[in-house]
Amino acid sequence: MEISDTNLLQITNTVAIALSEISFNAIRAQGPGGQNVNKVSCAIHLRFDIGASSLPEAYKERLLAMHDQRISKEGIIVIKAQRSRSQEKNKVEGLQRLQELILLAAVVPLVRRITKPTRGSQVRRVESKVKRGLSKAMRGRVVD
Questions:
Q1: Rounded to 10 degrees, what is the CA torsion of 76, 77, 78, 82?
Q2: Separation between Cα atoms, residue 125 and residue 133, nearest integer Å
Q3: Is the dihedral of CA 90, 12, 9, 107 positive or negative?
Q4: Do the Cβ atoms of 105 and 67 come closer than 8 Å?
Q5: Which long-range contacts (CB under 8 A, 24 or more apart) does 87-96 make?
Q6: In the chain, domain spans
Q7: What's the pLDDT tens digit per position in 79-118?
Q8: pLDDT exceeds cutoff 50 at 33
Q9: CATH says 8-106 is which class?
Q10: What is this structure's pTM?
């Protein structure tokens, strides 16, 4: 992930987000860590408003259509990064996760074309079922 000198988060070659559109809040991290956890706010809450962003409309629509727990009903992406004990590393991690999420929305899903099985494949399927049924029928009790 690259944060350029112009304070942009590069998503693709043509799409970038200004870091001013993303809000960061330092919060206390959860989990073990001794007294340091109780004193230092090193985890980061990253918030990104999809509707108010400069993303292309197609990206916005696909992001809002995603069923991801990080996207609220209001269209705000909330990412909590707390893996590292460094606030700066957590900020970079949060930006990477935001970039990955937007990249998922950048991929245009292929339209599925409905197809029918060929006549030969239907015949082969039925023949294999009949053959299997005959071999199972032979397993029955022998009658004198």
A1: -160
A2: 12
A3: negative
A4: no
A5: 87/26, 87/41, 87/42, 87/43, 87/44, 90/42, 90/43, 90/44, 91/24, 91/44, 91/46, 92/1, 92/3, 93/44, 94/24, 94/44, 94/46, 95/1, 95/3, 95/9, 95/22, 95/46, 96/1
A6: 8-106
A7: 998 888 888 888 999 999 999 999 988 888 899 999 999 9
A8: yes
A9: alpha beta
A10: 0.68
For residues 103, 104, 110, 116, the Cα torsion angle rounded to the nearest 10 degrees is 160
77 phi/psi in degrees, rounded to 5: -85, 125
pLDDT, position 38: 65
Q: Are 45 and 27 in contact (CB under 8 A)?
A: yes
> For residues 31 and 37, is the Cβ–Cβ distance under 8 A?
yes
Within 10 A of 46 (CB to CB), how many other CB atoms are there?
A: 21
